[in-house]
Amino acid sequence: MFDFIIRASAAALAYSIQCLVLRAVLARKTKNWLLMLGGILVTAISLLPFPFPVAGLTALVFYLASTLEKSGKQALLAASFTAFSFTLMVHISLDMIISAFLPGLLQSIFLGLITVVIACALWWSYTHLLQMDYHNMEDTDQVLPWYQSTAVRLNALAGLYFVIEFWNNSLWITISFLLLTGFTLSDLSFRYKNSLKENIRAAQKEHINLLQDSSNTINHYYQEKAKNERFMMDETKNLYDLIRFDYLDQAQEQMDYLLEPSPNSKRVDPLYKDKLAQLQLEAVRDLFEAKYLQARDADIWVSMEIPETIRQYPIYPLDWVTALTDILDHAMAETLKTDNRYLSYAYFTDADSQHFVLECSCNKPNAPISVGLSDSGLERASEILSKVPDVTLVSSARNGIYRIQIEFDMTKGGYHA
Amino acid sequence: MLNYIINPLLQSISFIVLWYLYSRMGKVTIPLRYLGLIYLSYLCSASYFGLVKIVIDPLFFLILDLALVKERSLFQRLLFAFYPTILFDVATRFLSLMVLPFIFNLDVDVTSISSLHLLTYLLAPLVIYLFLKIFALDLFHFTNLDDYWMKRNWARGTAILAFYYVFFTVIHGLNNVLVNTNDPRNLFEIVFQAENNRFLFLGLYLAILLWDFYNWNYASHHQMTQQLDDERGKLLTSITNYNRALTQIFIDKQQSTDLFKNQITRVKQALDSNHNQEALKQLEHYRQTHDNASIAPHMQEQLERISNPVMASFVANRILDLQHNGISYSLNVSPHFGKSPISDLDLYQLLQISHRAIKENLLPESELYTNYLQMDASQVLIAEYPVKEGTAIQKDKELADFVKGFINVEYRISHRDGYFSQMIILHEQGHY
């Protein structure tokens, strides 16, 4: 009787550890009732007097439990990988570690429990040794052709192993499968490291580009400013001469012309600094101020609203600033094509969401409301935002007004400034 | 007789493996004829030292590293000297104690059978390859790790591993010697029961090795993640600085326009009340205080000699900025001032930081002389400006820290007759 209890609890422990592994690999919700049912089934099977391919069954249960969401490919990978790698570890701990280093335990009734614990330790340490991050497995996979993808390889290995499990599970087969799995996972780990390196290089390259572009832009605006100052200086000299030689009428005319306000200047909000102070995200605040003044300088009627204090970045700060820069630049370019230049943007927060809304005049043909940003010039922003899980993106063009709406779900929290 | 053939053969195999691992880790390449010389000296020393040769191996590679590579931290040298021999040692022991006895169903250490002993040496590279491959250890990346991770990992694992390596070698060496002299009840055997516990010793050895692998993987992973974060942080800072610079320009432009309009309004009022002289005075005053808007032609000429666009626009901005702040500026650039030996990104940051350091001490309404000189194998950037009597003269901390990150950039200062000079020397690669 005691023997039965030990066997059942070993099986249950193994199963629940695999459930934890599955949750770690999948990072998604699962059908918990199905997992429970599977657990009872596996525990019951462990009490049968004859061997049964438990790993295959576990994989099947896991697969059924994790197809809650549409990506069946990922669920299949997670399910088969979990059951497969764990079974391998059980074999290794039983056939190699315990029989070589702790042979005294082979007769113990606690053999099953100890094997499961060692297997779990092995699995855990191997994962940490490789610095595996299963969440980016899918990302790394996406850029590869199917025959090189980790998912396909692991699924193939697992499937083969489950089939072989029916009639033979000698140590040699386990070792060869372990080696193959090791190669596949270390490949993934190397790829991940390489992608990190590439990202570093990409960031450096982007930085250099930014520095060159910004140097040019700053130069351009310096020249503009200098030109403006030269113009004022010339006018001063001109006026000086006119007054000195008593052409007073012409001088009056000239002064009236110079003092004439520019058509949009009256509509500029003098309180924009106070509004910006609400925004406690330094990088976004500086961006908004620069864009606001840039639009004003380009004679665009511009309005900016930040009604509440905002303390959190909705996504990674650099990404958010990059996306906003692209969107604002694009909107400004659009509105500059029109006669009635108009740009208005608002950034506000709700109890558990953040909204960015932008409107500008445009010359675009009417387009229905669409999800995402389809305009050329917004590829980078669109790519950044498409990677964010909880965001709603809507853009439309109607009656000469182009509108972008972005809403972030902030229930999971954001990045602090 | 057979030993005279087999021993050099074994040493040759171990040399090839060790050299390969060492050159990959340390990124060392040397001509083939020198390699032959090194091989011969290794063979001699290994044969001479015989049993304790395995302790000599790290020493040999440490000396080699000291001779071949000039600039390298001690911890890196130690790592590159120890790691290949440790890996080779683990692989041969793993083969001779576990794998080969398991395959051939033997119950002894196979080192006593010379054909199998040869097999352990032949198979060792394969085992090392499998270890490195399965545990995703990138030897090539080791030189990129910085000193912090080197020290940390030596303290956490590698030192224990190296100690254990020597210890293990000593156990086996002594055992072999003492068994051969027919004295099995030696003290060592009594204390450690080395022969009975050899699996335990090996298991511990492997465990320490894996722990060390974990540390190195962790180090390279974290260093890269950190680097990525740093790069992105720098990028965000640059974006913010850029936006601030733009904001500043627009505000300046707006202010000067407002000022001009106020002036014109006052002139208009004066004219309306028939005070023509007053109006002329106003205009004259405005002209005198604001005619600084453009870069003078002689400056423009100097500016054109700078071919690097980052540097050119930086200098142009500096000219306008200083003119605006009423500081007289003189610029002197060598003809054919060439490409900078450091990357544009670094150059831009260097220039920004050095400019910030200068601006901190620059007196209002004073002067700044800059010289950009092109030497044979270096570029020298000198800035001189007067400082107040009694100012503490010291290196700017931020700039000094930044320069520390480069091996080919020097930062010097001097102070003479009330003038302070900041000198930055950029050496071309290979000339420092």
What does this structure look like?
The complex is a heterodimer of chains A (417) and B (432). Helices cover 62% and strands 12% of the residues of chain A. Chain A is of the alpha+beta class and 417 residues long. In chain A, the strands form 2 sheets. Chain A has a 6-stranded mixed β-sheet, covered by helices on one side. A two-stranded antiparallel sheet of chain A has the order 2-8. In chain A, helix 4 crosses helix 5 (111-129). The model of chain A has no long low-confidence stretch (mean pLDDT 81). Helices cover 67% and strands 9% of the residues of chain B. Chain B contains 13 helices and 5 strands. A 5-stranded mixed β-sheet of chain B has the order 1-2-3-5-4. In chain B, helix 4 (74-104) packs across helix 5 (114-134) and helix 12 (344-361) runs antiparallel to helix 13. Chain B is elongated, with a radius of gyration of 35 Å. The two termini of chain B are 54 Å apart. Classes of the chains: A alpha+beta (417), B alpha+beta (432).
* Lateral arrangement of strands in the main beta sheet of chain B: 1-2-3-5-4
- The shape of chain B is elongated
Q: State the major sheet of chain A.
A: 6 strands, mixed
The residue ranges of chain A in which pLDDT falls below 50 over 5 or more consecutive positions are: none
Note the gap between the termini of chain B.
54 Å
Q: Total helix count of chain A?
A: 13
Order of helices and strands of chain A: HHHHHHHHHHHEEHEEEHEEE
Uncertain runs of chain B are: none
Helix content of chain B: 55-70%
